[in-house]
Write a structure and sequence with these properties.
The protein is of the alpha/beta class. 37% of the residues lie in helices and 16% in strands. The longest helix has 15 residues.
């Protein structure tokens, strides 16, 4: 495990490419108002995990809207907003004729596929070669067309961008870059429902919050909201694979960089480039950036499974980092269990 303190905390990263990038939204009320209209929506539980010094609470996102992860709150929320904005009386056909295209390292694609299906749109999902075929089959079951492109996530992102341009499709990425911020900003806003629920469910203000990150959407949205309601009270720690330290590398460099590394078993977190919205927000809001090894991520899983919280290396990355830290009695930690096994 490698930990670096954030020298930009409460300030701005000195990177001019971020000047026109918005900060993450903190408007959880708008998200929850829309979600109340969805019959599949409902709060996920907060569960106490035992075997630690100090209290540890986990927000269990494995059954969010029956899609298997917190990502159900992201792309599907964007699509729901765009369907509502059409003014159509029948929302189930509001987006007929529109095609959403994206790249996915995992659960983001499920959210795009599910949202498109509900509102009458089509979905095309680009996957890198490393994504298991079983996941591609799950996407097809949701009505999506699956395309394979490249050996890593970034190659599938480039392919999705090109397909959007060539075909006039709506690109719905979960990351952001200069000139592409509106949809990913709204997508991150969707994650605020999870943060608002956790804040209501926590028995006390946490002293430490562990947020795993790939491109950084979950971490950026949650950190911004928790700072809004709890101020500087919690220590916010962002957790990434040591093979994909996109945010940690940028914080160390003082600017956006492409991280270097091999393929990580933390597949949903194996992203070498951070979302600029997330990077800008976390440079302000996070206290520290943590990377964990493949072995450290795997070692956290058996104890979680024994407590009825089976997940993947990606889903349990925040818990893995908490497990490695010898925090004293009296501390209260909040972690996110982000996906099912």
């Amino acid at each position: 495990m490698k930990i670096i303190e954030n020298p930009w905390r409460g300030k701005a990263l000195p990177d001019e490419s971020l000047n026109e990038i918005p900060m993450p939204s903190t408007d959880a009320e708008a998200v929850e108002t829309l979600l109340r209209q969805c019959p599949a929506a409902g709060e996920t539980p907060l569960v106490e995990v035992h075997g630690f010094s100090g209290a540890v609470w986990v927000k269990d996102e494995r059954n969010r809207m029956a899609l298997g992860s917190f990502k159900a709150l992201g792309a599907a929320y964007v699509i729901a907003c765009e369907a509502s904005e059409t003014g159509a009386e029948e929302l189930s056909t509001a987006l007929t004729g529109r095609t959403y295209v994206t790249a996915s390292a995992g659960n983001h694609g499920m959210s795009v596929a599910a949202g498109a299906r509900v509102f009458g749109a089509d979905a095309v999902i680009y996957l890198a070669d490393t994504v298991p075929e079983s996941f591609a089959d799950r996407l097809r079951e949701k009505g999506a067309r699956v395309m394979r492109e490249g050996a890593e996530y970034e190659a599938s992102v480039a392919a999705a961008m090109q397909a959007a341009e060539d075909n006039g499709w709506a690109l719905l990425s979960d990351t952001s870059w200069p000139g592409y911020v509106m949809r990913p900003h709204r997508l991150m806003e969707g994650y605020l429902a999870m943060a608002a629920e956790a804040a209501r469910q926590m028995p006390s203000v946490p002293t430490h919050i562990f947020l795993q990150a790939g491109v950084g959407g979950l971490a950026g949205a949650c950190a911004a909201y928790f700072r809004k309601i709890w101020g500087d009270a919690p220590q916010v720690l962002v957790v990434e694979p040591s093979e994909a330290p996109a945010l940690q590398a940028a914080i160390e460099a003082g600017r956006f960089v492409t991280a270097q590394g091999g393929v990580s078993a933390m597949g949903r977190l194996d992203c070498k480039e951070a979302s600029l919205i997330a990077l800008k927000g976390l440079a302000r809001d996070a206290d520290a950036f943590v990377t964990i090894t493949e072995q450290e991520a795997a070692e956290a899983l058996p104890s979680l499974a024994e407590q009825g919280l089976a997940t993947t290396e990606s889903g349990g990355a925040g818990m893995a980092a908490r497990r490695l830290m010898d925090l004293p009695e009296g501390t209260v930690s909040l972690c996110i269990l982000s996906e099912m096994a």
